[in-house]
């Protein structure tokens, strides 16, 4: 297995678009790809899958155990080119300073290609890049791609500066308004909402083929052959033998490593769309409502009678019902949208949430279960939402939580009988002693 990491000095440098273009361009060449995304991102992996035609897995160096990361790299990338897009800046991590994409590159031994936004710099690019090259001895910055270059003269200035510090330039991409993706409050607008996504990716691939040295890039990836010899390591156990999972634009934030891990442990998985008024499979003994954007579809969900009837039936027959973040909001009594309108939700938990009074909640979490029959081990998780809790009624608490710095955050989540959930996106089993 060979591999590369596509990283940048900071968010907004254009690394996602570069990654998408490279994936499609390499796919055109017939390469077998294994796309990956560093960190807890749910949105970029869907773009990676669209560009590569393959399932994208998250590699989270803070929330995933090293042995899990190694085993997943081994299984996902075997016989293919593992191409992982970094998150934020290369050395940006959690609040405790750990868990950066650089840490992941060091663990997996991946060469790094740095995408540098050059729109407002020229010779100073050498000072910036030299800092990244020398900052971490275990991280090898193998080359750079210059992004948002203004002209031939600008490109020549940049290349001359980087030649002086002997840094390989793999390509120079001109500023192009067609290489921009729309965003909303949790990141990019979802891949499934782009009617013209295929043409966008095709254009990005054309640009990469024209502006980047793909042969040298592939050679860099091939120069490192990763083989950990790590055994298969399971993550969080499935919540049932047959788990019905909500999947559509309102419930899109589920991790591939979680679902595939459940399958690997003998769990049957089926999917249904609440927005299409579908009910979970009647023979499922568990239902999972992932996160997503229910706040943008609250009216549709409130009137989805087939979905509501199916969920209430699952609860009555004793199926375990689990909601994360957006799914947790939908399990509650009501959801208040951005305009202040209240929409009746499933009423399976005594919870009212609001997207009208927005406040950002963001960060890694370590969780200790207060319900050991559901979760018997400490867990890692990530929290990212703008909605707030308006009220919580009488129900058992699900977890005690602390942030990446170890600060206690109190009890979070709710459980009522066989229905439970929280704002936390579960990622992995916590390391012993974490």
Count of structural domains: 2
CATH class of the largest domain: Alpha Beta
Please state the average pLDDT score: 94
Task: Give me the Rg, rounded.
Answer: 22 Å
State the major sheet.
10 strands, mixed
What is the structural class? alpha/beta
Spans of at least 5 consecutive residues with low confidence: none
The number of helical runs is 12
* CATH fold-type name of the largest domain: Rossmann fold
Task: Give the overall shape.
Answer: elongated
CATH superfamily of the largest domain: P-loop containing nucleotide triphosphate hydrolases
Widest β-sheet, arrangement of strands: 11-10-12-13-22-21-20-17-18-23
- The amount of helix comes to 25-40%
Total strand count, please?
23
| N-C termini distance | 31 Å
> Into which percentage range does the β-strand content fall?
25-35%
The CATH architecture name of the largest domain reads: 3-Layer(aba) Sandwich
Give a description of the structure.
The chain is of the alpha/beta class and 434 residues long. The chain has helices at residues 15-28, 44-52, 66-77, 101-108, 125-135, 152-164, 197-211, 214-222, 256-264, 298-302, 305-316, 326-331, and strands spanning 2-7, 33-38, 57-59, 81-85, 112-117, 141-149, 169-174, 183-184, 187-188, 242-246, 268-272, 286-289, 320-324, 334-336, 342-344, 351-354, 361-369, 379-385, 388-392, 396-403, 408-416, 419-422, 425-429. The strands form four sheets. A ten-stranded mixed beta sheet has the order 11-10-12-13-22-21-20-17-18-23, with helices on both faces. Strand 8 and strand 9 form a beta hairpin. The mean pLDDT is 94.
């Amino acid at each position: 297995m060979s591999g590369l990491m596509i990283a940048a000095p900071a968010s907004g440098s254009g690394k996602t678009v570069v990654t998408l273009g490279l994936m499609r361009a390499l796919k055109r060449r017939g390469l077998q790809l294994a796309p990956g995304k560093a960190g807890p991102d749910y949105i970029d992996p869907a773009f990676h899958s669209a560009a590569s035609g393959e399932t994208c897995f998250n590699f989270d160096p803070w929330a995933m155990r090293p042995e899990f990361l190694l085993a997943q790299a081994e299984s996902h990338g075997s016989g293919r080119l593992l191409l992982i897009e970094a998150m934020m800046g290369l050395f940006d991590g959690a609040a405790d300073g750990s868990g950066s994409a650089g840490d992941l590159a060091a663990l997996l031994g991946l060469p790094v290609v740095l995408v540098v936004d050059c729109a407002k710099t020229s010779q100073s690019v050498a000072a910036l890049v030299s800092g990244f090259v020398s900052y971490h001895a275990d991280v090898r910055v193998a080359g750079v791609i210059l992004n948002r270059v203004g002209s031939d003269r600008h490109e020549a200035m940049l290349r001359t500066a980087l030649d002086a510090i002997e840094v390989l330039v793999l390509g120079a991409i001109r500023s192009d308004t067609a290489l921009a993706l729309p965003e909303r409050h949790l990141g990019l607008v979802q891949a499934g909402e782009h009617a013209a996504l295929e043409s966008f990716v095709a254009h990005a691939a054309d640009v990469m083929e024209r502006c980047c040295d793909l042969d040298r890039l592939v050679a860099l990836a091939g120069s490192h052959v990763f083989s950990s010899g790590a055994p298969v390591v399971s993550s969080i156990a499935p919540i049932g033998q047959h788990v019905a999972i909500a999947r559509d634009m309102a419930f899109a934030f589920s991790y591939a490593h979680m679902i595939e891990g459940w399958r690997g442990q003998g769990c049957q998985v089926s999917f249904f769309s609440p927005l299409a008024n579908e009910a979970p499979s009647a023979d499922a003994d568990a239902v999972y409502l992932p996160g997503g954007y229910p706040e943008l579809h609250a009216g549709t969900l409130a009137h989805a009678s087939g979905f509501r009837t199916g969920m209430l039936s699952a609860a009555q027959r004793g199926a375990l019902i689990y909601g994360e973040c957006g799914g947790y909001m939908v399990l509650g009594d009501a959801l208040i949208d951005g305009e202040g309108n209240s929409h009746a939700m499933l009423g399976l938990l005594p919870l009212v949430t609001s997207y009208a009074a927005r406040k950002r909640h963001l960060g890694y979490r370590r969780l200790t279960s207060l319900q050991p029959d559901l979760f018997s081990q400490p867990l890692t998780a990530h929290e990212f939402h703008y909605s707030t809790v308006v009220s919580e009624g009488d129900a058992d608490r699900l977890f005690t939580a602390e942030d990446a710095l170890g600060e206690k955050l109190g009890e979070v989540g709710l459980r009522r009988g066989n229905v439970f959930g929280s704002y936390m996106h579960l990622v992995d089993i916590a390391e012993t002693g974490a």
